[in-house]
Design goal:
The chain is α/β, with parallel strands linked by helices. Helices cover 53% and strands 12% of the residues. A seven-stranded mixed β-sheet has the order 3-2-1-4-6-5-7, sandwiched between helices. 40% of the residues are buried.
Length: 300
């Protein structure tokens, strides 16, 4: 690829103190920087524009996923050959940009992720390290990937990958949704080692527990929609087996003693209802997803 056009995309919310520096430093290595001001109440947009960025503005805060979606669409409109996503708080050092870009340039990857856990992770706070590793393990299990850092927002995407990974998730779960979409599309994903500076002027103020829970729920939701029979059908059948077992047990007790075991009957009824609801839900979702897929294929 000769002289590829590289566009850096930066979601930002109330980052007027750091966004200018991020834009200026990134522009030394990329052709253009696009910032999405996601409903900031400060001068984030004005500061980014003064630093040389193209700015997309949201009238109100819509969430990381929406900002990222709009940025990727804008990069496509700008005919970018490659897109870099990075945070607005200064934690992502632009000096790692070449390491993200090279695997795409040499054709060995479609998506490159800057991982905090390759080549040492001493700078990562222990609570954050534990949370990210747990979310990554869940993501790997659900997507058949083998990544070390599914929550890194420091990534590079080829132009060919962009149409296949545009997220629909509003919040931080967009990061794992992108990976799930990439896995389904058969895109090649590679990780390269980076370090992140956590001692910045304005680190993230989002509660780590609520952040992690939101990502986890988003990941499970996406997986359940894509594989409803596995997600709902298998647990539903297991519940029905439990219902049958307790029901049979209750009948045996009644046959031998003529005493109704209320607890076992209630467990059998409850497990049966729960199992039927899960199975029916799985079948309905599977049908709806199949119809939507057929419609999309006919429209292509």
């Amino acid at each position: 690829m000769t002289n590829p056009k590289v566009v850096a995309c930066v979601p930002a919310f109330n980052e007027e103190r750091t966004i200018g520096s991020v834009v200026v430093r990134a522009l030394r290595l990329v052709d253009e920087v696009v910032v999405c001001d996601d409903g900031s109440s400060d001068a984030t947009a004005e500061t980014a524009e003064c630093a040389g960025a193209r700015v997309i503005r949201h009238e109100r805060n819509l969430g990381y996923g929406v900002a990222l979606c709009d940025l990727l669409i804008e990069a496509t409109r700008l005919d970018a050959d490659m897109v870099i996503t990075m945070d607005a708080d200064g934690q992502h050092d632009p000096r790692f940009l070449p390491f993200l870009v090279d695997p795409i340039l040499d054709g060995s990857a479609d998506i490159v992720i800057g991982s905090r856990f390759l080549g040492g992770s001493e700078t990562v706070p222990s609570y954050r390290k534990a949370g990210v590793k747990f979310l990554t393990a869940v993501s790997n299990q659900l997507t058949d990937l083998s990544l070390t850092d599914c929550q890194s927002g420091y990534r590079a995407y080829s132009a060919e990958a962009l149409p296949k990974i545009i997220p629909t998730e509003f919040g931080m779960g967009a990061s794992t949704e992108i990976l799930a979409r990439a896995s389904e599309a058969g895109l090649r994903i590679k990780e390269v080692p980076i370090t992140i500076e956590y001692d910045v002027d304005r680190p993230s103020t989002q509660n780590p527990f609520s952040h992690g829970l939101g990502v986890l729920l988003s990941t499970v939701k996406y997986y359940s929609i894509r594989r409803p029979l596995t997600t709902y059908g298998i647990p539903g059948l297991a519940a029905l087996v439990v219902a049958f077992a307790f029901g049979f047990w209750a009948l045996e007790i009644f046959r031998q003693t003529r005493v109704v075991s209320t607890n076992m009957v209630l467990i059998s009824i409850g497990a049966g209802i729960f199992g039927l609801v899960l199975v029916v839900t799985g079948v309905i979702l599977y049908t709806l997803v199949s119809v939507v897929r057929d419609v999309k294929q006919r429209d292509r």
